[in-house]
């Protein structure tokens, strides 16, 4: 795992420059790809599948969370150039397939890019709805106790699509972390506390309790990264999900839940929050920076009687 993570960080840190040569055109999955001769035979190339995380039409780059390329590269999130691609046909959250070409040492571009028709539209639609909801709240975007939690659709640690409706009728304990957090008293401590609370909930036989940890750093925290982090912290996936997704959706959720996350390189200056959402989908309790020393035993009192 250490070697894989080291390789992932090395690749993810590379800045990609505009590549020369003919590119590919975005198309539906039913459109035949351009001839493979677009790539030089001297440049290493590999098939790639993944999800568009962010688009930059001005720089003509796209950030892609891609699957493992067996024998070459682990699953990670990387920025690519895509010469000749119609960026107007692309959207964050789309699944794509392409040929990844290493046109110079450590520099990659995508060719023969195809938008997959099997893309689940729920991720894109939910992100757009969140954006609309956040803007509609105007200068008071943060939810207060008693208000209904926003609906969302994200990816869990298995890469499965998860909708908030999955938790309807259950009590949800939500917190916010990122896997690269270097401060022991922040994310690691918060995750350990939730792990202890999960164990206590199980011991007391409390029903209908679900735990959700949302990553502040969706670009880095892909499902495999979150799963590895969760395993290190002893999470039981039976009722604990680690979620990530389009950056725009994550930012809107952080805004509505009142969580501050300011990026600076690989570091986030962020606030802490643990939120209890009732069976009715409304915010019932919030523990934040003003109550950093709560214990699992303290929280249990808010869950009993069931």
Model description:
The protein is of the alpha+beta class and 306 residues long. It has 2 domains: 2-115, Copper binding periplasmic protein CusF (OB fold (Dihydrolipoamide Acetyltransferase, E2P)), CATH 2.40.50; 121-300, Glutaredoxin (3-Layer(aba) Sandwich), CATH 3.40.30.10. It contains 6 helices and 14 strands. It has helices at residues 2-12, 121-136, 184-204, 223-232, 247-256, 296-300; strands spanning 45-56, 61-66, 76-81, 95-104, 107-115, 153-155, 161-163, 171-177, 209-215, 240-243, 261-264, 267-270, 273-277, 283-288. The strands form 4 sheets. The protein has a 5-stranded antiparallel beta sheet with strand order 3-2-1-4-5. The protein has a 5-stranded mixed beta sheet with strand order 10-9-8-13-14. Strands 6-7 form a two-stranded antiparallel ribbon. α2 runs parallel beside α5. It is globular and about 65 Å long. The relative contact order is 0.14.
Task: For this entry, give a set of tags.
single chain, alpha+beta, 6 helices, Glutaredoxin, globular, 5-stranded mixed sheet, 306 residues, 14 strands, 5-stranded antiparallel sheet, OB fold (Dihydrolipoamide Acetyltransferase, E2P)
Shape: globular
What fraction of the residues are assigned to beta strands by DSSP? 25-35%
CATH arch. level architecture of the largest domain:
3-Layer(aba) Sandwich
Q: What is the tally of helical segments?
A: 6
CATH top level label of the largest domain: Alpha Beta
Structure summary:
By secondary structure, this protein is of the alpha+beta class. Helices cover 24% and strands 28% of the residues. A hairpin with a 2-residue loop joins strand 4 and strand 5 (107-115).
């Amino acid at each position: 795992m250490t070697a894989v993570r080291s390789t992932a960080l090395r690749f993810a840190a590379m800045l990609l420059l505009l590549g020369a040569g003919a590119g590919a055109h975005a198309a539906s999955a039913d459109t035949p790809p351009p001839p493979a001769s677009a790539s030089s035979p001297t440049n290493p190339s590999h098939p790639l599948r993944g999800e568009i995380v962010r688009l930059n039409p001005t720089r003509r780059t796209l950030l892609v969370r891609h699957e493992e390329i067996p024998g070459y590269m682990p699953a990670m999130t990387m920025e690519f150039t895509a010469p000749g691609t119609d960026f107007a046909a692309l959207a964050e959250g789309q699944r794509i397939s392409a040929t990844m070409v290493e046109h110079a040492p450590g520099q990659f571009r995508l060719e023969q890019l195809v938008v997959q028709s099997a893309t689940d539209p729920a991720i894109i639609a939910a992100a757009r709805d969140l954006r609309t909801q956040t803007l509609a709240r105007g200068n008071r975007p943060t939810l207060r106790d008693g208000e209904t939690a926003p609906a969302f659709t994200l990816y869990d640690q298995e890469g499965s699509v998860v909708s908030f409706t999955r938790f309807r009728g259950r009590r949800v304990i939500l917190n916010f972390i990122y896997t690269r957090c270097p401060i022991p008293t922040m994310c690691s401590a918060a995750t350990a506390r939730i792990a202890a609370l999960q164990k206590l909930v199980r011991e007391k036989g409390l029903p209908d309790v679900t735990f959700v940890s949302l990553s502040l750093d969706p670009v880095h925290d892909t499902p495999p990264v979150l799963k590895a982090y969760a395993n290190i912290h002893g999470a039981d996936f039976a009722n604990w999900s680690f979620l990530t997704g389009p950056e725009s959706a994550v930012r809107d959720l952080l805004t509505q839940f009142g969580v501050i996350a300011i990026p600076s390189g690989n570091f986030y200056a962020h606030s802490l929050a643990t939120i209890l959402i009732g069976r009715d989908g409304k915010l019932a309790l919030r523990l934040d920076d003003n109550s950093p020393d709560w214990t699992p035993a303290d929280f249990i009192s808010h869950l009993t009687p069931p």
